[in-house]
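User: Show me a protein chain along with its predicted structure.
Assistant: Here is one chain, sequence first, then structure tokens.
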Amino acid sequence: MNSDLIKKIIEGALLAAGKPLDLARLESLFEDEERPPRDQIKAALEEIESDGRNRGFQLKEIASGYRLQVNQELSTWVNRLWDEKPKRYSRAMLETLSLIAYRQPLTRGDIELVRGVAVSSDIIRTLQERDWVRVVGHRDVPGRPALYATTKQFLDYFNLKSLEHLPALSEIKDFAELDPELELALGVGASANVSLGAPAANDEVVANENDVLDEDPTFALDQQLDGVVPTDPEEEPQPSSAQDHE
């Protein structure tokens, strides 16, 4: 099978699928006797990516695979196709999601210690309903609080291939404008490398010594221990009784 036909088949499949396709799924488009080598499929993807650089769409590799999408700089015009306005997310929700993304896995109590206010149950529920956050284990302390981490859907939504592609905190100006203390708190846990994807059998998830993770976590961590509570009660910041609202 010639390379032009392979490219057309892959491009057509990506347009028709309506969702990201990984390499294994793209390979399944071909019968055994006609299936091209994976290198040839990757070369076709590179050509499609190159073709889109001067067009209104682009090929993007994200956590779940490859997808065709509108170039971001055209969003102002393309969004006029829909009457519904884009959703706006509250500062409280974005701060909560950011803490989970940069310092996962962590508990609701960990988030409250950093933010200094109680975390609304509505925020956690909304993040879970959107499939951006899920429970990956529990901390082995009284009450066994749930440990939260981000999902592949979170990465897909924010156009990321892995957690390693999260923007550096120095590039996110909004945090410094909204809350310098939050930016500092995030920076403590975000300085090390973090990656998401099914870990190999010998991968080790680094977390709090009391964290008990689920048996097949779909993320791997290599970062500072999180959720460490000061031993002196007088030094421990006390969350406010006020609830965050979206």
